[in-house]
Amino acid sequence: MPAEVYSQGTQFLGVLLFIPVISFITGEIYLPIFHELQLESSYHYLELRFNTLVKVLTGGFFSFALILYIAIVVYTPALALEQVTGIDVDTSCLTICIVCVFYTSVGGIQAVVWTDAFQLFFMFLSSFSVLVVGTMSAGGFHEVFDKNYQDGRIQFLNLDPDVRERHTLWGTTLGCGLMWLSIFGVSQTQIQRYLCLPSIKIAQRAVRLNFILMTFLIMMVGWLGMVLYAVYAECDPITTKQVRTKDQVLPLLVLHVAGDIPGLPGLFMAGVFSGSLSSISSGLNSLAAIALRDFIPKKVVAKLSDPQQALVTKIFSFLFGLLAYGLTFVIRFMPGMMEAAIVIGGVVNGPILGVFTIGMLLPWVNSTGVLVGFVGSLLTTVWIATGGTVYKHYNPYVSRTSPPYPSNISGCPADWLEDYQPEITSPPSHLAGHIPLYDISYIWYTTIGAGLIVVLSLITSLFTSEDLRMLDRKLLAPVLPKLWSWMPKSLTFWIDEWWYYIGIDLPKPEMEMKKRTNLD
To answer: Is the torsion defined by CA of 405, 411, 412, 414 positive or negative?
Structure first.
């Protein structure tokens, strides 16, 4: 995120306004259902609510996106380590994967949770330390803010409704906010943490605390991005080839302002690796759980003893870690790691968020409707994202509101310019087939996917109805009756009567038997 704020200004921080909404929806809609069912995989819910095909399809695409995300998270700290120590990126990626696979396989979810706690401490400590030293080096708080303000980098209320603009208030709240909701609300990486807590009340408190801490962390790293611009506004290290990508600008700052302070560069690297290791370990553990519980036939799993299941899980963790390492050779060609993560997550997580939301909030949507909606939504987002990725090199959209990328080198020291040769940029050659849809900002992909699946599912379900009398209420969000309690009684009477008949013909023991069958 510091690299994004450095290159594009502060509008991305508008996601902070949506964090309370994410916290409320996660704690009041999604979490109560998962905590009530106590399923080992969040995708088991989709089998209970719809059918096995929905579970396998969504779980498969989630696993694919998560592996790509893990590869990004492995590669990002390797870039920082290369800038600070000169260690080869490939060596760093391999080392990170080996460490994560080892303690995730040996310790399981307990090791993931305990290491997350220590890693969070180092993330805050390192970010705060670099923030203080960097701000002092840039001339103080007032100087940092004034430099960003004078150059038009301070943006929080960009209300432009054009979805082609890279970052607007609408995009960073609704677009990026829904992507984070898909991670914190329904992702296996988070659900497995919530279910480790003994009661729903404690889990809901943990959700609120998590978002409070995340808010402070985002504010800190956002300020670091402003510090980067204040320091390098007149000497862009990317233009002068001091770094290869914008993700290496922050490590370069640490070397410049804190290279002579004993221990601070190492503390910075500890913070970078803490965030990375936390995401990788929880991701590998989630992938292993999904593979064992959702992809291997239940009859095969039932024949395995607990030690055998543990061994299979460790093998899965190793294989997924190996695959993620291999994908680091692919994702390094993407322009920016954060943008790449949002694009990949948006394309897949939007439709997946829609599936869970439909299952919990729209009782009349059946498995046929959600399958049609998921496939249609996924194909549409893949089409838009692919077109956007290809055509932005040939028919780039020129933003009207985003600050320009830093490129000033007027204040660079002489040794930075010794080998500098200005690049001769020719106008991009236009590629036939471009349509305005490809210019939509990457930050809207999640919203498009989630919205489209709801529309398609509702339309399809008009022709293929759900038998509400056989639908168990435990699969629906308990907050539903509260949602219409504020409506006039003349309307709530009919809604209450409709709610009464949901699950009325379902034998009481059936749900528990179905749940135990999925756990076995």
So the answer is: positive
Contact (Cβ atoms closer than 8 angstroms) between residue 229 and residue 153: yes
Please enumerate in sequence order all residues whose Cβ is within 8 A of that of 487, keeping only pairs 6 or more positions apart, or say none.
495
Cα four-point dihedral sign 145, 412, 269, 184: positive
How big is the chain by its Cα radius of gyration, in Å? 24
Cβ neighbours, 10 Å, residue 159: 8
How many CB atoms lie under 10 A from the CB of residue 333? 7
pLDDT digits (tens, 9 = 90+) for 471-517: 888 888 888 887 777 777 777 777 777 777 787 777 765 445 455 45
Q: How far apart are CA 271 and CA 267, in angstroms?
A: 6
Q: Residue 446 burial by CB count (10 A; 0-12/13-18/19+): exposed, middle or buried?
A: buried
Measure the CA–CA gap between 155 and 13, rounded to whole angstroms: 9
186 burial level (CB within 10 Å; 0-12, 13-18, 19+): buried
413 SS3 class: coil
Residues whose CB is less than 8 angstroms from the CB of residue 32 and which lie 6 or more positions away in sequence, other chains included: 200, 477, 478, 479
What is this structure's pTM?
0.83
Please compute the mean of the pLDDT values over residues 360-377 and round it to a whole number: 91
Tokens matching residue 286: 């989630």
Beta carbons of 158 and 165 less than 8 angstroms apart:
yes
* Environment class of 151 (CB within 10 Å of its CB; exposed 0-12, middle 13-18, buried 19+): middle
Chain centroid to Cα 457, Å, comes to: 24
% helix, strand, coil for the chain, step of 5: 75, 0, 25
Instruction: Report how far apart, in Å, the C-alpha atoms of 23 and of each of 16, 110, 195, 215, 312 are.
Output: 11, 24, 16, 11, 35
Exposed/middle/buried for residue 495 (C-beta within 10 Å: 0-12, 13-18, 19+)? middle
Distances (CA, A) of 235 to 128, 231, 377, 411, 413: 25, 8, 44, 5, 8
